[in-house]
């Protein structure tokens, strides 16, 4: 867009803060006490709260059946076709029997249908959440803890029961965290997870998922590792046991992967011509189950299969409170990560389709999904990126699509699930690995961030490496801590600049960046790109003194030394004068030996009185001279002392970047005024926001020496005022 040259002229007086407040009739804003409304009770407020916490009552009565129902039904069917194999596979990833993946694809989805505010995300099993759950279940219930004494084999039934108990209790605890945080409006906590952090974390989680599936791809029995470096140990063990691989499992996984990749490529190329994408995962699932059953892959080739899948739903089971202490840290990490993924996807779709997502209600909805799901033996869930994209692209408009998908999953649980008993686990592993493509493609972020923002690249790399080496829970903690530390460091290293005036304007820019910007003679304008607070206040003062080109501290020190020397000289002079006065007081009077006794007495008395008068006069002169010398020493200028003078008489601090002030900032500003006035430079402030001015007043910053007349509405106001009101010593110099 080309900007036409248009001149405008504004005539107004110079405005300092006092004049601005008077002109604008400034008054402190009355604080809105929102908490009072929390205790108000009325029919309208009760209805608003009901619609806020149960959004389905707001949108379902207005649902356009003719326009949206068919699209939602087709979208729900498409999502259910994807959710079936992913539910079975991600349960395996969580270290649980596959049927619990189907439960986790039914209960939480239906709960979110009632309480969620996003119309397009697909809630259910997700790879990152599953691998986080798997790291908990495998560390607290490892295979070694369930070895039978007789034949040293693993009691899989006891192990699976314990892992299900752990996962369901973990889901309840995750739900409690999310609901609690949502009710206290703590949805903003996700803002501390920046996009580079989330993408680096999910990429590292994808690598964790990939490594965890290698044992099914190669048909190996691996030890359970947990804690830091567990991923490295797993990779080393896989490499060590590669000669023991089951050929049938490797071939099954390879063929499945090739088929899935081919189907996905066909879907991409034929997207415009197909009403629905080809259900490659479902077709692979059905075909692999049929081939496994007919060819006897388990008995003839040693390929591990899913095993018995019970038909029907399980009754609700109370969580185990005694496990809360062991699970609380992991539960909080899973709660934050799950919400971060869900809200980020939800906001993307909301912006694309023009509606609003309530982050606090999303936290409550996701929490209730996990809380109620945990009671029905589900493991923690979030939303899936791939299923959400399918739900949107196939015509889904509301969560009716999600409810439709959950009903299809219910039918599969009740009637169809038991047919997949002969499904090879290598097929599920291949499905998981192929679906990791999107997250592994995020490795390309390294190149993009290197060009765009290397600080964000550093966050991405630290998050990725920490998650790979320290596991998912500690990796997330390190990533958040490093990200917040980097924010503090960046505020401590802002860009400091001396501003110059752009010709024929009232605009001031960095003279190092704008070649035409010129410093105003006799006036220095200083600005920092970050707010000043306790962590960078000293750095601000040091940078100011350095950029001004004057060694302020050295100049003040030299001035104090010279003044001290003058004071010592004055004291020595006073001491010498007192000695002279004392000596003159003790001098004997001259006596005429030829005079009579009366004359002698008279002369002696008169001489004594005369000397006494002269001594008093001398002392008065000494005292008067000392006072005059003291006054002269007090008003000594740098020029009179023979010290170099700064090449500017005024300093303007551009405080437009100040968002708040603390006590350290107030003291630093006062010290700046004091130090620069010591070297005969007057200090002014400019462009303070009103809340900052209020905080300056509350901190008793303004006094007799620093008033609001030293604070101006803009930098240009301060510069013009400084040029019109030169200090007295500068006027004399000119």
List the helices and strands and how they pair.
Elements: H1 17-24, H2 35-38, H3 43-53, H4 56-59, H5 65-93, H6 99-103, H7 107-115, E1 122-124, H8 127-140, H9 156-183, H10 195-212, H11 214-218, H12 230-241, H13 247-269, H14 280-295, H15 297-301, H16 324-353, H17 359-375, E2 382-384, H18 385-393, H19 400-416, H20 425-435, H21 437-440, H22 445-452, H23 454-492, E3 496-501, E4 508-510, E5 523-528, H24 537-547, H25 552-585, H26 597-634, E6 650-654, H27 663-678, E7 682-686, H28 690-698, E8 711-712, H29 715-724, H30 728-733
Parallel strand pairs: 5-6, 6-7, 7-8
Antiparallel strand pairs: 1-2, 3-4, 3-5
What tags apply to this protein structure?
two-stranded antiparallel ribbon, 734 residues, 8 strands, mainly alpha, six-stranded mixed β-sheet
Radius of gyration from CA coordinates: 41 Å
Q: What's the arrangement of strands in the largest beta sheet?
A: 4-3-5-6-7-8
What is the general shape? Answer: elongated
Helix-and-strand structural type: mainly alpha
Q: What is the percentage of strand-forming residues?
A: under 5%
Binned, the helix content reads: 55-70%
Please, could you describe this protein's structure?
The protein is mainly alpha-helical. It has 30 helices and 8 strands. The protein has helices spanning 17-24, 35-38, 43-53, 56-59, 65-93, 99-103, 107-115, 127-140, 156-183, 195-212, 214-218, 230-241, 247-269, 280-295, 297-301, 324-353, 359-375, 385-393, 400-416, 425-435, 437-440, 445-452, 454-492, 537-547, 552-585, 597-634, 663-678, 690-698, 715-724, 728-733, and strands spanning 122-124, 382-384, 496-501, 508-510, 523-528, 650-654, 682-686, 711-712. Strands 4-3-5-6-7-8 form a 6-stranded mixed beta sheet. A two-stranded antiparallel ribbon has the order 1-2. A hairpin with a 6-residue loop joins strand 3 and strand 4.
């Amino acid at each position: 867009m080309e900007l036409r040259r248009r001149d405008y002229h504004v005539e107004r007086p110079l405005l300092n803060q006092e004049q601005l407040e008077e002109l604008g009739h400034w008054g402190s804003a009355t604080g809105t006490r929102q908490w009072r409304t929390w205790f108000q009770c009325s029919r309208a407020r009760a209805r608003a709260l009901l619609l806020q916490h149960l959004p389905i009552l707001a949108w379902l009565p207005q649902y356009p059946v003719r326009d949206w129902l068919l699209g939602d039904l087709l979208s729900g069917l498409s999502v259910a076709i994807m959710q079936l194999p992913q539910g079975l596979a991600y349960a395996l990833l969580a270290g649980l029997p596959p049927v619990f993946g189907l439960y986790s694809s039914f209960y939480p989805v239906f709960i979110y249908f009632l309480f969620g505010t996003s119309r397009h995300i697909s809630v259910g099993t997700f790879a990152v959440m599953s691998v986080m759950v798997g790291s908990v279940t495998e560390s607290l219930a490892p295979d070694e803890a369930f070895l039978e004494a007789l034949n040293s084999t693993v009691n899989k039934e006891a192990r699976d029961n314990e892992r299900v108990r752990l996962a369901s209790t973990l889901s309840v605890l995750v739900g409690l965290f999310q609901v609690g945080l949502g009710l206290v409006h703590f949805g903003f906590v996700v803002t501390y997870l920046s996009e580079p952090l989330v993408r680096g974390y999910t990429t590292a989680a994808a690598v964790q998922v990939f490594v965890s599936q290698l044992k099914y791809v190669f048909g190996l029995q691996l030890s359970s590792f947990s804690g830091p470096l567990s991923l490295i140990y797993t990779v080393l063990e896989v490499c060590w046991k590669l000669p023991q691989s089951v050929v049938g499992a490797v071939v099954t996984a390879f063929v499945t992967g090739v088929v899935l990749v081919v189907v996905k490529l066909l879907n991409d190329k034929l997207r415009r011509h197909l009403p629905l994408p080809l259900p490659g995962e479902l077709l692979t699932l059905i075909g692999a189950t049929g081939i496994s059953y007919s060819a006897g892959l388990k008995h003839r080739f040693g390929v591990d299969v899913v095993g018995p899948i019970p038909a029907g739903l399980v009754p609700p089971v109370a969580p185990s409170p005694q496990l809360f202490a062991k699970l609380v840290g992991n539960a909080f990490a899973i709660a934050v990560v799950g919400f971060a993924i869900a809200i980020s996807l939800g906001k993307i779709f909301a912006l694309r389709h023009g509606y609003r997502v309530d982050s606090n209600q999303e936290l409550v909805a996701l929490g209730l999904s996990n809380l109620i799901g945990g009671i029905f033996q589900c493991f923690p869930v979030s939303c899936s990126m791939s299923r959400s994209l399918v739900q949107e692209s196939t015509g889904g408009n509301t969560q009716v699509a999600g409810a439709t998908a959950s009903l299809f999953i219910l039918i599969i649980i009740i009637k169809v699930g038991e047919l997949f008993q002969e499904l090879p686990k290598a097929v599920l592993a291949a499905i998981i690995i192929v679906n990791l493509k999107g997250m592994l493609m995020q490795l390309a972020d390294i190149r993009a961030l290197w060009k765009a923002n290397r600080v964000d690249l550093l966050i991405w790399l630290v998050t990725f490496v920490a998650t790979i080496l320290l596991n998912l829970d500690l990796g997330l903690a390190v990533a958040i801590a490093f990200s917040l530390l980097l924010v503090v460091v960046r505020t401590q290293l802002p860009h400091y600049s001396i501003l110059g005036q752009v010709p024929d304007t009232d605009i001031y820019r960095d003279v190092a960046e704008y070649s035409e910007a010129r410093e105003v003679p006799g006036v220095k304008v200083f600005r920092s790109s970050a707010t000043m607070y306790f962590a960078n206040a000293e750095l601000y003062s040091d940078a100011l003194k350095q950029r001004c080109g004057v060694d302020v501290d050295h100049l003040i020190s030299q001035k104090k030394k010279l003044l001290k020397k003058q004071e010592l000289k004055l004291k020595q002079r006073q001491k010498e004068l007192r000695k002279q006065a004392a000596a003159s007081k003790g001098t004997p009077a001259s006596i005429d030996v030829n005079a009579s006794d009366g004359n002698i007495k008279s002369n002696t008395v008169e001489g004594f009185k005369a000397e006494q008068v002269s001594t008093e006069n001398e002392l008065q002169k000494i005292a008067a001279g000392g006072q005059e010398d003291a006054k002269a020493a007090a008003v000594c200028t740098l020029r009179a002392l023979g010290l170099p003078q700064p090449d500017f008489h005024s300093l303007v601090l551009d405080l437009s970047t100040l968002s708040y002030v603390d006590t350290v900032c107030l003291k630093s500003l006062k010290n700046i005024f004091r130090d620069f006035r010591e070297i005969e430079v007057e200090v002014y402030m400019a462009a303070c926001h009103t809340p900052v001015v209020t905080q300056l007043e509350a901190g008793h910053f303004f006094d007799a020496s620093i008033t609001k007349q030293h604070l101006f509405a803009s930098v240009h106001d301060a510069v013009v005022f400084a040029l019109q009101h030169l200090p007295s010593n500068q006027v004399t110099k000119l």
